[in-house]
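We treat protein structure as text, and this decision shapes the records that our systems exchange. The remainder of this section carries one protein's record, kept here as part of the documentation:
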Amino acid sequence: MLNLSPDDIQAIKLSLQVAVTATVIALPPGFAVAYLLALSNMRGKALLEGLINLPLVLPPVVTGYLLLLLFGRKGWIGGLLDKFDIRIIFTLRGAVIASAVVGFPLLVRSIRIGMEGIDRQYIQASRTLGAKWWDTLFTITVPLCSRAILAGMTLMFARSLGEFGATIVLAGNIPGITQTIPLAIYEYTSTPGGDSMALSLCLISILLDDHVVDVLLDAAAMGASTIEREGISFSHPARFVLVGTMNPEEGELRPQLLDRFGLSVRVTGIQDRDSRVQVMERRVAFDEDPAAFAADWDNESLNLVERIEAARSLYSEVSISRDLLFSIADFCLELGVDGHRGDIIIMKTAKALAAFAGRTEVQQNDVDTAAELALPHRMRRQPLMEVDDTAEKIRAMQQ
């Protein structure tokens, strides 16, 4: 049971207030910057991108110190605001600014990816029909990258919830005024007997923070979990297989998350009448005697386990020709697959399929099957285009 004090509840409220405010304030300039980077032909894009991504490479404490110099009473912006009796240091405004600056690169990057995925022909067609740039913006650009905008806002919100270094330097750690969840956890860890309270707030933070998904995916991909915070770096092995299920009707995952999953399978209802009857009969048999039902399938299950174990042992001996590697690369290029993870996954999956079949040489049919599993969720899709449509496109190209 969570044991939260009034100060803890206030810290949760302040965290949500800071995260929501920072996200809303950063959205208009974030959208504008993403638009310039993705769709404009302005000079100095590399310089602008480097400046925007600076908070990602700087330690949060350094970012907070630079903001302190900027918004202090003798700072360039702080001195100007002081004339209007507006104070940033050690206020909630300071916490919002710190969170907005640190999370801004994530917002821009997500929106930019969505804009780069828009087919330029739609924009050109609207201009040809006489639409003004703002009409094109609100009727084509924004609707087509709406999911990317939502993904960027989610990342921004999650990063703001977890912001610590820049906030404590610029806004301080004042209970009821600037103390957010991370600052409250820091205070409890420095207080004797505060472990239980810190763990309660950690649980709240995990439930609120979508960024945990990114951490899990990184650990699954790299085989290690690395924790870096305020000059401390610790890494430990993390060997596990990540399996996820979802209902597409409830919404889609962000592209950068989909790409982390090696293979995908779309499950549909059985359309064969005999098979549907067989499903009902097996269900009845299981309900009547689960133990006997399991015993009936023991031999088949054991045979499958032995076959998988044999394939795992044989995998290191499986080879794939250079011609097939070129075939994989050409296939991914023709389909417009971004990045290289798709190529690598197809190669590894084709080798696994060959090993499962008891062969030491990959064949073309292994590559074809692997492509149908590895590419549908990675391909860029036009609006209203389903994953099934991309799968059909892959099969058509294989023929």
Summary: The chain has a mean pLDDT of 81. Residues 247 and 267 are 10 Å apart (CA to CA).
